[in-house]
């Protein structure tokens, strides 16, 4: 082989090697540069007088709609003025079947009806929204959708007790909300919640979760808690396993990642992303059974929450904490 050919071969092999090496060195780093440990007191600073305002999207609740046209029934002479057809009263046999057909009977050709979607034909109820049917536009987007919006307001943080817990003096603080439901065009106060948290040398702990909801009055967390959401210091991959005092409710909290979050209150970099896996909880806590995800921003607190089964989504709208306001 000539020296020229040998030189060309070495140059060619060297170029391939450089490409391979360069490709490896330019590989995108997907893991966070700092994996912990993180000080949890910095990620949910519980300072009296602070407040949070979250919006809650519930995508399992369809917007109310008028399903199908209304069968008006055949006209009749209401002799006793009770609003209903009675045997013996005369009527117009519009479909010529020899009997009276009322609003609750199957509609047939010739019987008057209310054409709700104005398409010129009778449409029976079918359990789903069809084009042209009136609906309550809860999210004001001009389109029929299968979710409505809730809002938690007045998330004010106040001290409720100071007590000795082992050798550590901690302040247990109550985070109280008033939950409002946007229904049609009105805001209606639906219920109130009272959650007690502490975040100190014993970690971020959740002591009670009471809602003034007559359908689910039991505060299972207060009965069998508290739940340790995070240890005082957490690194990615660390976990906490909680089993309630009854030995039934299980709550596993895992620091899964560090991730940015964009919500109504703004952009928050390097949030701690927790994975919660719960089972066996009853009362007000049963809504958490399954897998939930929560994002905590440094010096701010909870900015985003996706509850079990992806049915409920929280995002921070505004916050005032340590004389700092977002947005």
The CATH architecture of the largest domain can be given as: Beta Barrel
Outline, from the CA principal axes? Answer: elongated
SSE string, helices as H and strands as E: HEEEEEEEEHEEEEEEEEE
Radius of gyration: 31 Å
- Quote the beta fraction: 35-45%
Predict the CATH topology of the largest domain: YmcC-like fold
Q: What is the domain total for the residues?
A: 3
How are the SSEs ordered, and which strands pair?
Layout: H1 3-25, E1 38-39, E2 51-58, E3 70-71, E4 113-114, E5 148-165, E6 168-183, E7 186-200, E8 203-211, H2 220-224, E9 227-230, E10 233-234, E11 239-243, E12 250-263, E13 266-279, E14 290-297, E15 301-306, E16 312-321, E17 324-326
Antiparallel strand pairs: 1-10, 2-5, 2-16, 3-4, 5-6, 6-7, 7-8, 8-9, 11-12, 12-13, 13-14, 14-15, 15-16, 16-17
What would your notes on this structure say?
The protein is mainly β and 327 residues long. The chain folds into 3 domains: 1-30; 38-64 and 143-326, YmcC-like fold; 66-134, no CATH class. It contains 2 helices and 17 strands. The protein has helices spanning 3-25, 220-224; strands at residues 38-39, 51-58, 70-71, 113-114, 148-165, 168-183, 186-200, 203-211, 227-230, 233-234, 239-243, 250-263, 266-279, 290-297, 301-306, 312-321, 324-326. Strands 2, 5, 6, 7, 8, 9, 11, 12, 13, 14, 15, 16 and 17 form a 13-stranded antiparallel β-sheet that branches. Strands 1-10 form a two-stranded antiparallel ribbon. A two-stranded antiparallel sheet has the order 3-4. Strand 16 and strand 17 form a beta hairpin. The radius of gyration is 31 Å and the shape is elongated. The termini are far apart. The model is unreliable at 1-30, 159-164, 166-172 and 179-191 (pLDDT under 50).
């Amino acid at each position: 082989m000539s020296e020229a050919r040998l030189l060309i071969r070495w140059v060619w092999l060297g170029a391939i090697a450089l490409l391979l090496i360069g490709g490896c060195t330019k590989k995108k780093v997907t893991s966070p540069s700092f994996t912990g440990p993180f000080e949890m007191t910095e990620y949910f600073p519980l300072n009296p007088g602070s407040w949070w305002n979250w919006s809650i999207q519930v995508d399992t609740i369809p917007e109310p709609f008028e399903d199908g046209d209304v069968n008006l029934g055949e006209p009749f002479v209401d002799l006793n003025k009770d609003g209903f057809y009675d045997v013996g009263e005369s009527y117009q046999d519009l479909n010529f079947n020899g009997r009276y057909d009322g609003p609750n009977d199957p509609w047939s050709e010739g019987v008057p009806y209310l054409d709700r979607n104005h398409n010129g034909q009778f449409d029976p109820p079918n359990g789903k929204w069809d084009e042209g049917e009136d609906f309550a536009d809860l999210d004001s987007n001009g389109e029929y959708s299968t979710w409505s919006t809730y809002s938690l307001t007045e998330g004010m943080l106040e001290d409720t007790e100071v007590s000795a817990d082992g050798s550590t003096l901690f302040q247990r603080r109550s985070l109280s909300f008033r939950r409002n439901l946007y229904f049609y065009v009105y805001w209606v106060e639906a219920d109130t919640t009272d959650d007690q948290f502490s975040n100190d040398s014993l970690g971020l702990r959740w002591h009670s979760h009471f809602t003034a909801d007559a359908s689910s009055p039991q505060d299972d967390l207060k009965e069998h808690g508290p739940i340790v959401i995070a240890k005082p210091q957490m690194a990615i991959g660390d976990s906490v396993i909680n089993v309630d005092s009854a030995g039934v409710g299980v709550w596993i909290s895992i620091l899964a990642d560090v991730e940015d979050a964009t919500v109504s209150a703004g952009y928050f970099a390097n949030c701690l992303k927790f994975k919660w896996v719960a089972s066996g909880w009853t009362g007000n806590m049963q809504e958490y059974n399954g897998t939930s995800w929560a994002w905590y921003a440094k010096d701010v607190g909870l900015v985003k929450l996706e509850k079990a089964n992806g049915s409920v989504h929280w995002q921070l709208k505004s916050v005032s904490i340590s004389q700092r306001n977002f947005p």
